[in-house]
Amino acid sequence: MSIPDINKQFERVPAATVREAAQYQPAILADVAGRRGALHGRIQALRPRMRFAGAAFTVEVRPGDNLMIHAALALAQPGDVLVIDGKGDQTCALMGTIMMNVARERGLAAVVMDAAARDSLDIDEMDFPVFSVGTNPNGPTKQVGGRIGHPVSVGGVTVHPGDFICGDADGVVAVEREKIEALLPLAAQKVRSEAHRIEEIRKGNVDAPWLHAALVTAGVLKQGESL
């Protein structure tokens, strides 16, 4: 039995979980997820203020062709994040102002693509979150098939349809749909811990309490030695 190129039936991370997870920075979620899930730094916000959180709606295209992205825009649901495996191609843009307006009007939370965008000034005025591998004024073709709703590799990370994904000025982090809810208490604890550490630093307690033991474990210092 063949697997269809367009998969419309997949479970999304619940909207309530997205709302709760959205309060945490991607860096916090990456840390509590085992320091994994962060997309390669080549994928960045078009403007540093842009941020988002939502459920991944995955698209795989051939480099330089956006036919399947148009199909995805017709199928994606409000709150989805279009996550596009564009093979890291920067020779042309896969999306620009017209498609971003469609995405916003359909209620999508953001667009993340391992490829280039264009019309960045217009997108800036729209204030719609777009994360891409830079920009390029060339337009794409609309001739080659691809896949929708299948696992994709974006920025070196495997993203499954329905996974949680979020981004800010630091970059983008994806967390498996099945794992994100269990990470939320850990994220809350890490936020509290970091706030306490910063408070201590501002009081003058700048020494890292874990550093000496780590240096000994790494063999940099011997037992009894100090910096």
UniProtKB/TrEMBL annotation:
It comes from the Bacteria. Keywords: Magnesium, Metal-binding, Methyltransferase, Transferase. InterPro entries: RraA/RraA-like, RraA/RraA-like_sf. Its cofactor is a divalent metal cation; Mg(2+). Substrate binds at G96, T97, I98, M99, R118. Coiled coil: none annotated. GO terms for molecular function: metal ion binding; methyltransferase activity. One of its GO terms (biological process) is methylation. This is Putative 4-hydroxy-4-methyl-2-oxoglutarate aldolase. The lineage of its organism: Bacteria, Pseudomonadati, Pseudomonadota, Betaproteobacteria, Burkholderiales.
